[in-house]
Amino acid sequence: MTEPGGVLAAEDVPCSPCVAQLHSPAEELAALRAAVEHEPDPLVTLTHLLHLCRDEHPVLWEQAGNPATQATVTQMLEPLRALARSRPATAALDPATRRGLVDSLQPVGAVAPVVVARELAQFLDDHYGQFFADSFRRRSPYQPGVGDPIPLGGPDVRTVMDMQPTAPPWRLANRLDETRHVRLAGGWATQFRVVFDYSLVETATELITTETIVATCHPNRGLTEFTLPDDPSQPAFPVQPAHLDAQRAHLDRLVRDAVRAGASIVVLPELCVTEALAHDLQNWVKRDDGPQILVAGSYHHADGSPPRRRNTALAWIRGHDRPLIHDKHSPAEQPIREDIQPQGWPEVRVYVTAEGWHLVLAICRDLLNPQAVHTLAEIGANVVLVPAMSESLAPFTGQVAHLVGSAQAFVAVANNPADWAGNGAPPPHRAARALFGHPGLGQQTRQVTSPDTAPGIATLHVRSGQLRWIGTDCETSPAHRNSVVDDMPPWATRLAATLRPYLPNEMPSGGSVILRTAAVLVLLTEGPTGPQVLLTQRTSDLHDYPGRLVFPGGVQDPGDGGPVATALREAREEIGLNQDGVRILGVLPAVTEPETRFLVVPVLGWSNRLGYLGAVNLAEVDGIHQVPLHRIATRWQVDQPDRDHPDNGADCDLSRLGSMTAWVMDTLIAMLGAEPGSGVDAFPFRTS
């Protein structure tokens, strides 16, 4: 159309495109086929296929769930699968396989090529996934950009835990731009410098096993043990321990105690060291009795010209000379205003092991950055070690749970100090000492508190999810050890004599019966109304006996040497029991538990000095009860608690007794001379 005066109307003027025209689907498919035909690396070919899946995801979503489409694609790929079955897989795609891939990449009827591309990506992942790690390793240190492949996969956590994972063993969503071993990097790659580092492949072997214990160390009681400005509103730098010689002694003792507790991974808190002290701590991983990994906390320092203030975490690996380093990128603003100056792109370095563990370091508030946590989940971080210095760990629980649920991560946050009174911070309560994330925990995270502000260590046992607090100021004195007093009441002496024929020297083998050998501790004490027994209430999220009243106990460890050792060890781990105050009376015959497939030996003990050296393992135990035997013997009657004796276990619901626990109790009561279910007055050893 021409306007008056012969000038072209705007709609008639040819438009010069401001961007290059997009390729048509046919052109994209032709380019993909050409790339696949000449590419021998299966990882690169897989990346090409996933790019098409990402670009055409609406079509893929529409067709992927159609059974007829799936049947057609399966039939199309059968020649290629037959070819793969006829020869061993190698690290490079041979010409025949590449030709088969190209021949499959074509539309058939109503089936879009992108649906075929998705199935081919799965095919390459299934048959050549074993070679992807070598491809990434050749590129190490590898920094992906948006759309580049990143490694996924890793161990199935079910192989290192007795507990059932609370999230699927693989990722929750089956995304279109990923397979089991590879995912395309998203926009987060522009927010963080993500580096995949394979330098630990040869040294960090068996990073997480069934016997792995992770320990966090907590050397300081309060803020007064640090160098801080008098005015809390002023920037703080450098924050460090005020008394370095005392701090060095604290840390050495705590690392020593952590290793003695079986820890192979030890994490120290934020700002609990100086740079020199962090480097000196490398000596621990050089020792035969040292940990495999020691995160030597973090420290404030300045470098560069002009000097830049930094907060750096340092970790040492056995057999690896250079430290693992992470710079904090999220400074604290309160209650301590941290005067550090992060610069440039924040870096997240992922240390990949041969077993597929993705080890990452973070520092305190780095873990409160939602974008950073999203990035950690995207890169499959499954071992996250975090030095922290925070007045509360509550804000961290959601972030850690996200990592546990999405990446099946094991997370350890070491917090310090215990007392945040002073420095302008209100002290409503002491800070939790540690926060652990574990795929088997019902809430996926658990905080560990301490009974006081004294230094100590918190431990997480990977296999069982067991948590413990070990205070360094609560060690049993030599005079108290092995000094059980023999002033047992007559009923306990008679019971020990009755049990003597049953005392075995070792755990029953079970023969050909496929059962797991275990032991429980039936611990008796003298109460206001006569003998009473210790019962624990299991947490409601456990796989075995959730919410039930049971004896402390568990599965035999190879080093136990017998049911007595197993029962005492489990009682110590579950409720912190001081076993030095327990005298073993004997055992009952082993009980078969068909439901849980245990062969359980009830070990009977007596104590007149019941004591505890550690905290209750909150991952397994909700509470401890001392229940009079006469209450258990008369549990089928209307309960009439003794008003004169409030400490009689009346707060526990005996209808929650575990089946094996109830059987053992009835047997024990019969051996002591009372019939289960008989009246209270008929109970011969009830005292008034």
From TrEMBL:
InterPro entries in UniProt = C-N_Hydrolase, C-N_Hydrolase_sf, CoAse, NUDIX_hydrolase-like_dom_sf, NUDIX_hydrolase_dom
List the keywords (alphabetical).
Answer: Hydrolase, Magnesium, Manganese, Metal-binding, Plasmid
**Required co-factor?**
Mn(2+); Mg(2+)
GO molecular function of the protein, one example?
metal ion binding
Query: What CDD domains does its record include?
Result: NUDIX_CoAse_Nudt7
Domain of life of the organism encoding this protein: Bacteria
| The Nudix hydrolase domain, residue ranges | 515-651
Tell me the ranges covered by the CN hydrolase domain, including all copies. Answer: 228-540
What PANTHER family does UniProt report for this protein, alphabetically?
MITOCHONDRIAL COENZYME A DIPHOSPHATASE NUDT8, NUDIX HYDROLASE
What name appears for this protein in its UniProt entry? NUDIX domain-containing protein
